[in-house]
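Loading example: each entry is read as two labelled lines plus one structure line.
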Amino acid sequence: MDNDQPNVTADGQIMIETKGLSRIYKTRGKTVEAVRGVDFSVSSGEIVGFLGPNGAGKTTTLKMLTTLLTPTGGSARVAGFDLRKDPVGVRRAIGYVSQAGSTASEARAGEELVSHARFYGIDKHTATQRARDLLAALDLADIWERKCGLLSGGQRRRLDIVMGLIHQPKLVFLDEPSTGLDPQSRANLWTHIRKLRDEIGTTVFITTHYMDEADALSDRLLVIDKGEIVAEGTPSELKRRVSGDAITLTFRDDADARQAGDAAAKMPGAETPVVEGHLVRVHVPDGASALPALLAELARADITATGVEVKKPTLDDVFLSLTGRSLRD
Amino acid sequence: MPTILSDTWTVFSRAMLLSVRQPLWVAIGILQPILYLTLFGPLLERVASVPGFPPGDAWVVFVPGLLVQLGIFGGLFVGFGIIAEWRAGVIDRMMVTPASRVALISGRVLRDVVVLVVQAIILTGCAYFFGLRVPIWAVLIGLVLIAMLGAAFSYISYAVGLMTKSEDAFAPLVNTVALPVLLLSGILLPMSLAPAWLQVLSAINPFKHIVDALRAIFRGEVLSPVVALGLVLAIALIALGAWFGNRVFAAQTK
């Protein structure tokens, strides 16, 4: 299996590459273009967030990349294998954690894991050993004999992740991993996902419609809307590119504010400042580095700000400005 | 193809383990035919003397009908299980592995057949106490016939379950198929008692011929054309069911 992977051998190599990947559904005479030719690539060792509102084409794209759905157009290489020509090769190399779950309620956790590993040709002894190690790593050491239906939401989701990792895939797809979890379980899950990459070097492709999740986990984001990739970059790049940071300065009087407004307008990349009474509002690409220079300049003119605020845009703002719609459901 | 076999075994043993842990469902499945046996069978003992009643005593006529009923219904309702598995993400989880698609459905069908054969043995054993007297080899041939029938329905039921993906759509569909099949196959009362038009309708129903075949086997007439027809139909059904089931499973990722 290793000799058929020309472009995935070391870090920095391409793990996913799509060219015009698309999917058309035909239902009752109507044609729905769920995914309209997406092109992107994911390098080995990256955590890439795939972001978009419900119905944007996230799940359809994910199902194509995991061989659960045949593309109607375009092509892709996943983990070094051609999606169309060698879906079985792709299946051997990837892990997939669906938002629907992976285990029967009546089944016992350990048995589900070992039986799943058998599909990859892993013998029972090795499977048991790996399953126990992975369960321990995800704080699930004592659930072997438990029925999956009796686990808590967070435990069951981590069990799904263990299931997706049992054959030590190089690439893992996580579909909306924290949906339905309480804040504490989410934070805990994020820690585990980061560890996957940091400690084992697994490439992680994660879909989400939660901005904070994308922000907290991803090295890079792909934003999809109406079946097309509308933006791509690191979370901070995207935020910077779209709206910049909002700086709000407060002064003793209106005269100071007007003078400060003129100074703020000269900052590199600044949008025209808005002066309201003794408040000045201005957007700059990087507020944290621009602010000290501005304050120093004002000090030379003997103007002191009485209040300073820098607000980073959220990915919600990014999404809103890209698509004109909010991500929140 | 060793992977198909080992994958089938993996799917089968997982499913079997789940069934063994839930003996209640196996018991409920057998309860209905046993109720027929105890509460309806004795009525037939009287009817057996009516003109037009087929050869053989009441039990030799009635028990094959119950066995066929068990085979049809035992198989027909397994689709509910696959809808639940699909909803829990188990089907997709198995589909993203390199496992053979044929194995994913066949392993489950194999489990259903094993459960069915166990139920059929229990039913035949109970019938013995009511007065059924049949040579053991006839029972064995009968079990093979029932196993084939159950496998065919199990394949079809899984396929339809995965096509509908909804209990609300699946349940009425199954009941609509089950009732005419049941009534027209002479399972409860032999069709030889029916008026001519009903006999014609019934002759179109392949299951009527399977019931007739099983009755002939229980009478010891294994080499009769009725038995040959029943076996051919059963083989055709299982081929059709397996083809359809595997097609639907493979189409899940289309």
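The longest helix of chain A spans residues 183-200.
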